[in-house]
């Protein structure tokens, strides 16, 4: 049982910590909070055990925010949805349809066209590396903190037992057996993608060709005829809501508290909209931060990536991603024989002693900076029963060239993610921390 | 006023192909891990792509297929003419049935129970029997590579397959 005694510790003007102990040897922070900055361009981030319905699933390192959506122009036809996964690795708001069904958001229509697309409801199969979500597009006013993205295309993840439009086989194939259709499979009530691009697909989804790839957008005719792959104008595709704010629309800042070695039951931080846009200065990039431009050469295999180096190993396809719940990279010298996973080749790393190398991040222009990487024993961490860990790591597959700097990277840091094409100097997609 | 927002992919739109869905449905088997060099040429036609072939150090060739949006697929062909590896860097998730052929089912089946746990995933991998697959990234920038251990020329470094 996690109970026994509590103590208030730590502090500073904006951080606080309470501790809970299983026994004399295992104490875990109960709640670690970084409460600043505040203001209308901010909202709370909470890392906890997830929404009801996901509690039994061992939710770990998933950052959540609360989002309100309203029918366009309405102040009463609204739904507030908590535990929406905050994801810097995707673009656009996706909510379980059942959470907003009652407010009747208008759909997005696809016109019939000469390329064979039938008229119908715009519907999307949005893919992750593993897993995908299926459901119709809708138009909503999206309110987060004090900011509003008016008339914005979002996706409603169809969580009906019988989806309004049957899931195409191409979408099931794209999901690779992991179609995410519930609170339990998403570990969230939705996904808020606030990454470095303003629209979720762009040019490849303007036509229905999808050559060599799975299909993304579909037109689903009324009356139950099969959904057909479709091109969707960029303005109708699912939008990064941040880019549609009237102000504070050029990126985001995420600030999370540092965590103790054994993690925390709950960690709270702040999501701040805009970079260098706030009159009070609450989203200024500090002079101590380094800015890392991502590769924007579409012909490069490392397009939209930066490079991480750890010792002799280089990972040229690396990214900072709040939607990854651990540091995912390949290092053959780290043992993967954890009791939490299935055998000696599991997902997590379980070193006998905590590994603390210095890692280097290098951007597309050659700018580089060091950061501390910490990899603790995953079994030790999971045994605490906590949900937030700054030192959890797993493999990305051997020998992967990617390093996903996941949620652990955000603890104890202020991380900026700019949005490509928005007004910002220097322009272009970059991270800063 | 907000500055106009460019699309994330800066190249001009890809060529329109009439009735492409039907064409795809009728397409012969193409592009495949474990296939022969003919499948590489079929790919290029199918994707309206440009192809660049280079010799590698082990007596094989690397065929790069580049699509108009910048997506690229590299196919590594050994001296016996077999596609022993593929590497991709694509805007959209590549159709693994087309890219990996019959090995795509092995990829799906082999993704470990760990990765089948709930939540979104930004990397997936398989290493079993003859097949190695790494798949990573996010929409707009999917990356990965796959190879058949029995077909990789002796002396090939895994980091050369990219």
List the helices and strands and how they pair.
The complex is a heterodimer of chains A (433) and B (162).
Chain A: E1 3-9, E2 15-21, E3 27-34, E4 42-47, E5 63-70, E6 78-87, E7 91-96, E8 109-110, E9 120-127, E10 132-144, E11 147-157, H1 169-175, H2 183-186, E12 190-194, E13 217-220, E14 228-229, E15 251-255, E16 264-273, E17 291-293, E18 306-310, E19 313-320, E20 327-328, E21 358-362, E22 368-372, H3 378-383, E23 393-394, E24 404-405, E25 414-418, E26 430-432
Parallel strand pairs in A: 3-16, 6-12, 7-11, 19-24, 20-23
Antiparallel strand pairs in A: 1-2, 2-3, 4-5, 4-16, 5-6, 5-10, 7-12, 8-9, 9-10, 9-13, 10-11, 13-14, 15-16, 15-25, 17-26, 18-19, 18-21, 21-22, 25-26
Chain B: H1 20-26, H2 37-46, E1 50-55, E2 61-66, E3 72-77, E4 83-90, H3 96-100, H4 103-110, E5 123-128, E6 131-138, E7 141-148
Antiparallel strand pairs in B: 1-2, 2-3, 3-4, 4-7, 5-6, 6-7
Question: How would you characterize the overall build of this protein?
Answer:
- The complex is a heterodimer of chains A (433) and B (162).
- Chain A has 3 helices and 26 strands.
- With 433 residues, chain A is mainly beta.
- A 6-stranded mixed barrel of chain A has the order 5-6-12-7-11-10. In chain A, strands 22-21-18-19-24 form a 5-stranded mixed sheet, with no helix packed on it. Chain A has a two-stranded parallel sheet with strand order 20-23.
- Chain A starts with a strand and ends with a strand.
- Residues 1-13 of chain A have low confidence and may be disordered.
- With 162 residues, chain B is of the alpha+beta class.
- Chain B has one domain (29-160).
- Chain B contains 4 helices and 7 strands.
- Chain B has helices spanning 20-26, 37-46, 96-100, 103-110, and strands spanning 50-55, 61-66, 72-77, 83-90, 123-128, 131-138, 141-148.
- Chain B has a 7-stranded antiparallel sheet with strand order 1-2-3-4-7-6-5, covered by helices on one side.
- In chain B, strand 3 (72-77) and strand 4 (83-90) form a beta hairpin.
- The longest helix of chain B is centred in the N-terminal third of the chain and has 10 residues, at 37-46.
């Amino acid at each position: 049982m996690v109970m026994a005694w509590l103590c208030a510790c730590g502090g500073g003007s904006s951080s606080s910590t309470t501790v809970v102990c299983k026994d004399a040897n295992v104490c875990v922070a109960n709640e670690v909070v970084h409460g600043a900055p505040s203001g209308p361009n901010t909202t709370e981030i909470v890392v906890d055990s997830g929404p009801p319905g996901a509690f039994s699933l061992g939710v770990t390192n998933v950052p959540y925010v609360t989002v309100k959506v309203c029918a366009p122009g309405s102040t009463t036809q609204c739904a507030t949805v908590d535990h929406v996964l905050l994801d810097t690795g995707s673009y656009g708001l996706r909510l379980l349809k059942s959470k907003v069904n009652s407010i009747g958001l208008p759909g997005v229509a696809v016109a019939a066209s000469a390329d064979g697309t039938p008229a119908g409801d715009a519907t999307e199969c949005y893919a992750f590396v593993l897993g995908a979500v299926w459901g119709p597009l809708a138009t909503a006013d999206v309110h987060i903190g004090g900011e509003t993205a008016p008339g914005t295309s979002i996706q409603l993840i169809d969580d009906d037992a019988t989806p309004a439009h049957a899931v195409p086989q191409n979408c099931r194939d794209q999901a690779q057996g992991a179609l995410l259709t519930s609170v339990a499979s998403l570990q969230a009530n939705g996904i808020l993608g606030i990454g470095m691009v303003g629209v979720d697909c762009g040019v490849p989804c303007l036509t229905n060709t999808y050559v060599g790839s799975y299909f993304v957008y579909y037109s689903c005719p009324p009356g139950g005829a099969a959904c057909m792959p479709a091109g969707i104008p960029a303005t109708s595709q699912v939008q990064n809501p941040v880019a549609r704010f009237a102000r504070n629309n050029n990126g985001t800042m995420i600030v999370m508290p540092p965590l103790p070695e054994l993690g925390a039951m709950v960690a709270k931080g702040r999501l701040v909209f805009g970079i260098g846009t706030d009159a009070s200065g609450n989203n200024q990039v500090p002079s101590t931060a380094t800015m890392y431009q991502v590769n924007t050469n579409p012909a490069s295999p490392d397009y939209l990536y930066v490079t991480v180096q750890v010792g002799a190993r280089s990972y040229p396809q690396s990214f900072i991603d709040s939607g990854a719940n651990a540091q995912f990279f390949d290092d053959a010298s780290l043992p993967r024989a954890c009791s939490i996973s299935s055998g000696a080749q599991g997902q997590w790393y379980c070193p006998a002693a905590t590994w603390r190398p210095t890692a280097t991040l290098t951007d597309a222009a050659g700018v580089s900076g060091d950061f501390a990487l910490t990899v603790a024993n995953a079994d030790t961490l999971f045994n605490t029963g906590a949900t937030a860990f700054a030192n959890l790591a797993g493999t990305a597959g051997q020998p992967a060239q990617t390093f996903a700097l996941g949620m652990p990277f955000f603890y104890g840091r202020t991380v900026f993610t700019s949005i490509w094409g928005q007004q910002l100097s220097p322009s272009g997609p970059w991270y800063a921390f | 006023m907000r500055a106009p927002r460019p699309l994330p992919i800066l190249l001009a739109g890809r060529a329109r192909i009439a009735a492409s869905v039907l064409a795809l449905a009728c397409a012969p088997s193409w592009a495949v891990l474990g296939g022969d060099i003919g499948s590489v040429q079929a790919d290029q036609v199918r994707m309206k792509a440009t192809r660049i072939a280079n010799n590698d150090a082990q007596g094989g060739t690397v065929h790069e297929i580049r699509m108009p949006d910048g997506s690229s697929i590299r196919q590594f062909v050994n001296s016996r003419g077999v596609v022993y590896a593929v590497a991709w860097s694509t805007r959209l998730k590549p159709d693994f049935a087309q890219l990996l052929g019959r090995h795509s089912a092995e990829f799906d089946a082999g993704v470990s129970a760990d990765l089948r746990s709930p939540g979104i995933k930004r990397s997936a991998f398989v290493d079993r029997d003859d097949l190695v697959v790494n798949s990573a990234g996010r929409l707009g920038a999917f990356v990965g590579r796959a190879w058949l251990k029995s077909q990789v020329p002796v002396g090939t470094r895994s980091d050369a397959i990219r």
